[in-house]
Every structure is written in C-alpha cells, then in structure tokens.
Amino acid sequence: MEVLSVVLAAALAIAIPALATAWAQSRIGPAIAASMAEKPELSTTAVLMIAIPETMVILGFVVAVLILFRTA
Amino acid sequence: MILAMSKVRILGPRLRLNQVLGSLQRIGVLQLATPTEPASLATLALTPGQQRERRYLKAALEDIAVAMEELGLAASTFEGPAPVPLARPGEGTGVRYVRVASRARRQAVRLKIRETALEEERALILKYQGFFAAFRPLLENEARWPNASIYHVLLKADQAGVIERLHASLSQVIGDAFELYSRHLESGETAVLLIVSAQGAGRVERLMAEAQVQEIPVPSGYGDGSLSDVFPRMLARLGELPGDLDAVRRERAALARKYGKDLRAGREWLASRLQALEALTLSGVTARAFVIEGWVPSDARRKLEIRLRAEVGEEIVVSEISREEWRSEEAPVVLKNPRIFRPFEAIIGLMPLPRYGTIDPTPFVAVFFPAFFGIIMGDIGYGLLLAAVGLLLHWRSKPGTTLRSVAEIIGPCALFSIIAGVLYGELFGDLGRRWLGLQPLAFNREEALIPFLLLALGLGIVHVLLGLVLGVVSAMRRRHPREAVGRGASAVAVVLIIVALLAVTKVLPRGLFTPAVIGVLVAFPVLVIAEGIIAPIELLSTLGNILSYARIMALGVASVMLAVVANRMVGAIGSAAVGIVFALIFHLVNFAIGMFSPTIHALRLHYVEFFGKFYSPGGVRYQPFGGWKLHDTTAQRHDGMTA
After folding, report:
1. Angle at alpha carbon of residue B161, lines to B159 and B163, rounded to 5°
2. Identity of the residue in B449, B453, B600 whose CB atom sits nearest the CB atom of A51
3. Could you tell me what percent of chain B has a pLDDT over 90?
4. CA gap B392, B387 in Å, rounded
5. Count of the separate structural domains present in chain A
6. CA distance A12 to chain B (A)
7. CATH number at residue A14
8. Is the pLDDT at B70 greater than 60, yes or no?
9. N or C: which end of chain B has fewer CB within 10 A?
10. Burial A8-46 (b: 16+ CB within 10 A, else e)
C-alpha cells in the first residue's frame, strides 16, 4: 500500500505539472505564432515563451525523482 | 568585448565639405552624428535638386528590393560599395541602374502576377474536380431541368450544420420546388448541389446570402454551357497548367540571370549615393566652415586623422570630443571577439545589442552554451552525428552567413557532447556498454539521477553567481554604485544560503551553519537598502533561477532513456531486422529532439537566468558612413586601420 502511495505521488508530481505545461503552451503557441507572422523578429521571445512553462514539468520531474529515491 | 569608441569632431573650410565626406565614405570607419557644438551652427539642407535625387534613389532602391525578392535573388549583404563622389551622377551609371531597377521590377512583378493567377486557376479546378466527382451522374443530367436554376456550393468542414438550416428555410420559402444534394469530400468540405425552379431563384439567392453560403460559379474563360459542359475543358486545362507554371519559373530564372549582377551592383551604387546625400544633412555649416561629428573605434581614430589629412590636406582639423561631453547611451556598439568566440555573436544577435559601456556576454556564452548542450546530449554517437551535421552545414554555407555561424556553433557543441558521452560511458545510449564494454568515467546517467541533479544545480549556482558578479562590474562601469552593491549583496546572500543548506545536510561542517545564517541576516538589510523593498522577491527569484538548471538533468535523463528504449526495440519487436529498423528510427527521432531541445533550453538558461543578472540591452548598432557589412567588413576595415 505504501509503495502504491509513493508511486502515485510521484506520478501526480509529474502528471499535474505536465498538464499545466501543456495547457500553458497550448495558449502561448498560437499567440506567439500569430505574433511572429507579423513580426518575425520576435523569434527570441518565441523561444523564451515556449520554454518558460516547461520549467513546471521539469521541476515536477525532479520532485517525482526525489519522491522515488527518497523512498528507495 | 564591446569596442571602445571615441567621438570626434572634424572642422574645415566649407568648400572642402564634399571632398571630406567623399574621403570619409571611402575610409568607412566614422559613424556620423548630428553636430552638438556650437549652438549657432546651421544644419546643411539639401537643395531641391538633391531632394529630388534622393526621392529617385529611394524609389530605385525599392524597385531593386522588390525585383530581387520576386526573382528569388538572395538578399545578401552589401560587398563594400565603391564610394561615389558627391557630384550629381549625371546620365551615366546611376541613371542606367535606375532604369534597370524599374525594368526588372516591372517584369518580375508581371511574372509573379502570372504565376499567382495560374496557381489560383489550378486550385479552383481542383476544387471543381472534387465537386464534379461527387455529383457526376447528376451533373451529366442537368439537361433534365431545363427551367431550373442550379447552384454549386462548397461548405467548409465547420459549416456542416448550414445544410439543415438551408433545407428548412427553403421548404418554408418555396415549398418542395427544389432538390438539394450533399456529399462529403475527402478534403473535409461538403459539396452541395441545389436545383431550384426558375421562379424561386431570387428568393433562394437571398436565403443563401443570409446563411452566408457562397456559390462557386461556373468559371469564366472555359466557354459557355453548364458545369458538365465546361468541366472537360477545365480538366484539359489542368493538364496544361504544370507546363505553364514551369515556363513562368524558367522565365523567372532567366530574368534572375539577366538582371542579377546589375541589380546587386545597382543596389550598392545607389545606396552609396543615397548615403552620401544623407550625410550632407548631418553636417553643420557656417558661412565659411563646416563641422562634422561622429563615432569611430578609439584605436582607429589616429589613423582616420592621418588618412583624412593625407587625402584632403592640412586645413582639416580632427579633434576628439572629451568623454565627459557624451553619455554612454549615445555611443554605437560594435562587438569584437576572438575568432573562436565570434560565431556565438549570432546568439547575442537574437537579443537587442548590449549598451555601450556594459558587458558583451559573447565569451561567456561561447563557454557555457556548448557545455550545457553537451551535458544534456552527452553521447559519443550522437556527438559524432552532430559533428557530421556541423561539417555538412559548414561545407554548404558561405562565410559570414548565419548558417556558417550555426555550423561553427555546432562544432563545440558536438565536442562537448562527445566529452560528456565519454564521462557518462554512453554511445547511442547503453549500446557502447553492451557491445564495447564502455564504462562511465564520472557516473551513469541512467541510475545516478541525484548526482546528475546536483551537477546541474552546481552549474546553475556557478552560472547565476557569475551573472551576479558581471552585474556588479556592469553597474560599476555605468557608475551605478547602489545597483553594484545590490548585485554584490545578492551574490553573497546566495552563497551564504547555499553554505547554510550544505551545512544542514552535513555536506559541509555543521559549524558553518550559524555563521552563514548570520551572514545572510547581515546581507539582507544591505540588499533592501540597495535595491529597495523588492529585493527579497529578487533574491527568491535568483534561487528559483538556480533551481531552473535542474532542466539540464531532466532533459539529459530523458535523452539517455529514449536511447536505451531504442536499443531495447531490437529484442522486443518480432524479428531482429524489424527491431533494428525501429531502433534506428527511434535513434533518429531522439537525435532530432536532442538537437533542438538542448538548444532551446540552453538558450533559455542564458537569456533568462544568466543575462537577467547583468545584461543591459538597448545598444545602437555601429553603422559607419560607407560601411555596410557591419560584422565582417567593419572588423576587417577596423583591423586594416589599426594594423
């Protein structure tokens, strides 16, 4: 039971930020694509805007790893 | 680094103004600025003739730009134009270029219009092709309804509901005096054929307009008759269109060959002439004298003076305006780095230039960007593939282009990937370990996740602290002592917090915990005094920036895991041959991801986490009078001047 809880916690730690990242990128992607169509010089901003929400899933992944390793 | 600039003032007799401007254009190191002294100085205005000439030149340059765009001639940078004298160009070279530009634009645009029309015609016929295929039996019997009006409609995928509404409205308005057929097409659209008695046609058209349904009319240009009469002629035309389009493309290629050389040469000549005219308006004059001011790289100033005097004479006085008389923000910026770092200026080029007097981060980017990339990719096999891609790009690119810079950035990235691959013992994932007995020299990324995480955070600490230290230097250079103290206090606070954390986790002696906490408590008020009430949030944000470097570990682990999964496909899927094919495809996909993902994240770590600590954007690019290719020819011209 305890193992199940730990695995579930690790899964949620990465799944929830992954959903949040996906949602954020789904909003940012079209907006920045539309902006770049008018102003191609915004490519740097586009890279940053797309990469910023990924921090959530990356930190989620780190937390999941820590949960699993701490238990192991 | 950002090249040191000097502001110079050139004085001389007014009669020599044109000669001096001609020399300056030839020398090509001075960026002109509006004279500031004395206040009574009048700015030279262009004569009506010169104004007219300027308009012609601008129009001709626009013609050339349009013609080159339409003819597919690469918009390459100017190759150091031959400066032209300030006298009128007369009926010679300039007029010929203006005529060529106008003729080339006219012909290129005519071809473009023709090509667009042919492509539109093809798209239209293809639309009808779907429609005709859906209703072929009905359309072939159009003669059955001699007194009916027939409407052909294509509905988009999201307009499917319109049919029911249209049907209901038609029943209401004209009863059962209509027939409506619909078919779904492969394109996702819905083809609708509506047959209505001639009496009800007017009302039906109003209804269609209200429902925002547009009819596709029987196209003109294919003779008279119904759609079924016209369609065979349209199909025949569809067969001819590729040949017509090819003819247009061949004609365009011929035009590009015919005008290409003249357009490039004309662009340089006309731009040079325009620049010379516009330089006049930046000159200050009195009744007998002129004043020109401008920016020149400091170590080229003396040579500029010597060459100018040699070309014009001893009556010309070149003096340096003292540093106290101008602000850093006014000075133009030119980056000059050793050859090995220069490709990385392309990464800085994606941001606004740094301000004069601040720090050029190119050398730091040149070290950390490939390092981060390599640590994430970290595979000997992928590193070798990347090196091959870099060599291919290098071979296919021309010097001075962005593609060449990319190729030259790929080189160090591949090298770092191979080095990291040796440290992790990875060659296409675990293949090297299984086949060649390759062992990790540092740690195995598949298992040692915590050491990898610590390495990533350690890199983050070093990178962010370096950013804060550069922030101190930058603030001191700009004479902002308060900001410098704030950045310094932040750096100290970050170090002390890390020491305290390491002491708590017993990585460092426990006794360091209390001094570290006391240090933080001392640094904190200094921080608040120097940077204001927002300082605690900034400090938290800096700690968050360090945590952000965990992405190096996360992406690295994802990369190796994907490679391992690819290798395991060989035994997991049916026959070995199928497994090998799948494994190769998977490795290829992983390699493609491995090229883009580390690039984007390494860029982000630089732009957000690192630059945020010291970078001051807003620099004005150095554009010397007579110089076009800023990065290369400026450096070359500048080298030539200082040699």
Report:
1. 95
2. B600
3. 22
4. 9
5. 1
6. 17
7. 1.20.20.10
8. yes
9. C
10. eebeebbeebeeebeebbeebeeebeeeeeeeeeeeebb
Instruction: Enumerate the domain spans of chain B.
Output: 5-103+254-330, 118-240, 355-614
Q: Which residues of A touch B (CB under 8 A)?
A: 43-44, 47-48, 50-52, 54-55, 58-59, 61-62, 65, 69
C-beta atoms surrounding B479 within 10 Å: 10
Q: Structural domain of residue A19, as residue ranges?
A: 2-71
Backbone angles phi, psi at B89, to 5 degrees: -70, -10
Distance CA B521, CA B396 (A): 58
Tens of pLDDT, residues B229-257:
777 788 888 888 899 999 999 999 998 88
Helices then strands, each counted (H, E), chain B: 19, 11
Amino acid identity at B551: R
Local structure of B290: helix, strand or coil: strand
Question: What pLDDT is recorded for position B633?
Answer: 38
Tokens of B288: 């007998």
Instruction: Please tell me the distance from the alpha carbon of residue B641 to that of residue B302, in angstroms, as a whole number.
Output: 9
Closest chain B residue to A67, measured at CA: B450
DSSP assignment letter at B333: E
More confident residue, B341 or B73: B341
Q: Supply A28's token pair.
A: 């940012």
| DSSP assigned state of B617 | B
Strands B620-621 and B332-333: parallel
State the CATH class of domain B118-240: alpha beta
In what side-by-side order are the strands of the sheet with B148-155?
B148-155, B190-197, B178-184
Judge whether B638 is closer than 8 Å to chain A, CB to CB.
Answer: no
pLDDT of residue B92: 61
Q: State the smallest CA–CA distance between residue B611 and chain A in angstroms.
A: 13
What pLDDT sits at residue B262?
Answer: 86
CB neighbour list of residue B229: distance below 8 Å, 6 or more residues apart? B223
Task: Check residue B632 and report its DSSP letter.
Answer: I
pTM score of the predicted model:
0.72
